Amino acid sequence: MSALPVYRWRLAPPGYATIRQLRAQGLRPGGQDVVAVLERPRRRRGPLVAYLYRVDRAKPVRPMTPAKRAALAKANAAQQVCPHCRRDAGYRIPRSLGMCVPCADAPELAA
């Protein structure tokens, strides 16, 4: 196994990009292996690490099909229904609460 080159933050050569940077350009890694590592040092913890891919080997993002769009809409709608009162909250239910905000703030449920 060969070691990957490690670059410091903001010092990666042109032609390399992280997954987020590829996505912003409308690209995806497309099955290619990681070619380098980007490290951002931190004071009291280990460095933040990002993996770099070659832009010239990246492929275009697959288009959203009607079936994928419908599945995504169904999944998002399911995360908006409060499991306690069974109403559509109109926003994603926070996992920290496990229910909509009015149900979490109700005094009879606080005990």
Précis, in short:
The protein has 111 residues and is an alpha+beta fold. The chain contains four helices and six strands, in the order ββαββββααα. The protein is flat, with a radius of gyration of 21 Å.
Query: Which term fits the overall shape?
Result: flat
Order of H and E elements: EEHEEEEHHH
Give a quick account of the main beta sheet: strands, pairing sense, barrel closure.
4 strands, mixed
Using DSSP, what is the number of strands?
6
Low-confidence residue ranges: none
The residue-averaged pLDDT reads 90
Structural class: alpha+beta
Spatial gap, N to C terminus: 57 Å
Determine Rg (CA atoms, Å). 21 Å
- Count helical runs: 4
Q: How much of the polypeptide forms β-strand, as a percent range?
A: 15-25%
- The neighbouring-strand order within the major sheet is 1-4-5-2
Helix percentage: 25-40%
Quaternary state reads: single chain
How is the secondary structure organized here?
Elements: E1 6-8, E2 16-17, H1 19-24, E3 27-28, E4 36-40, E5 48-54, E6 59-60, H2 66-78, H3 101-105, H4 107-110
Parallel strand pairs: 1-4
Antiparallel strand pairs: 2-5, 3-6, 4-5
